[in-house]
């Protein structure tokens, strides 16, 4: 069965860095786009970034552009999120999610069919 | 950027009730809409994709409808395990965006 397991969360001071990992199993990792989604304490879900199946295409939300880098190692079935210059507002549970596509009248529609349990990142002095 | 207006933000209902949650994007997103259920301490679970398609293993009491700028998630007869928070997600264009969430609570 598909499993996604995040790690690397913790408490970090503002301005410092942290790297999250997400190890995938149960599917051919290198064939799917992967996403990071976060959830601040008591708040809703917020999309963060996506990387294509081969790592060549990446997109970010504006608030993390230039600070966060999404990457993947398909030989190790692992997704990463390098987070630099962390701010208090980056405090959240970070989820990795597997992308799936659905062909609809010639267009590919995307959704997230599997999610991890999340890793808590707390940015505080 | 596309914003997703989800309503209501909270909903009180009883077992057996029929409930409806709506999502309205600020521009047309065709059918690039999916729905998720989240329970406390867990990652979200996919319910509906491409606006109307039921994810494998999800009970048939869940259904989705709509396209363009008006979408609905319906639970036909609430079960105890359905009390959770629900989110819509648009994947028409980046940055992808979620609705604010609907917390479904027991009346």
Folded structure, characterized:
- The complex is a heterodimer of chains A (125) and B (107).
- By secondary structure, chain A is mainly beta.
- Chain A is 0% helix and 57% strand.
- Chain A contains no helices and 11 strands.
- In chain A, the strands form 2 sheets. In chain A, strands 2, 4, 5, 6, 9, 10 and 11 form a 7-stranded mixed beta sheet that branches.
- Chain B has 107 residues and is mostly beta strands.
- In chain B, a hairpin with a 2-residue loop joins β7 and β8.
- Chain B is globular and about 35 Å long.
- The A-B interface holds A 35, 37, 44-47, 50, 59-62, 95, 97, 100, 102, 104, 107, 109-118 and B 30-32, 34, 36, 38, 42-46, 49-50, 53, 55, 87, 89, 91, 94-101.
The overall strand count of chain B is 11
The low-confidence runs of chain B, each spanning 5 or more residues with pLDDT under 50, are none
Helical stretch tally of chain B? 0
Average pLDDT number of chain B: 97
Average predicted confidence as pLDDT of chain A: 97
Can you tell me the residue ranges of chain A where pLDDT is under 50 for at least 5 consecutive residues?
none
Order of helices and strands of chain A: EEEEEEEEEEE
Output the radius of gyration of chain A.
14 Å
Topology:
The complex is a heterodimer of chains A (about 120) and B (about 110).
Chain A: E1 3-7, E2 10-12, E3 18-25, E4 34-39, E5 45-51, E6 58-60, E7 68-73, E8 78-83, E9 92-104, E10 107-115, E11 119-123
Parallel strand pairs in A: 2-11
Antiparallel strand pairs in A: 1-3, 3-8, 4-5, 4-9, 5-6, 7-8, 9-10, 9-11
Chain B: E1 4-7, E2 10-13, E3 19-25, E4 33-38, E5 45-49, E6 53-54, E7 62-67, E8 70-75, E9 85-90, E10 97-98, E11 102-106
Parallel strand pairs in B: 2-11
Antiparallel strand pairs in B: 1-3, 3-8, 4-5, 4-9, 5-6, 7-8, 9-10, 9-11
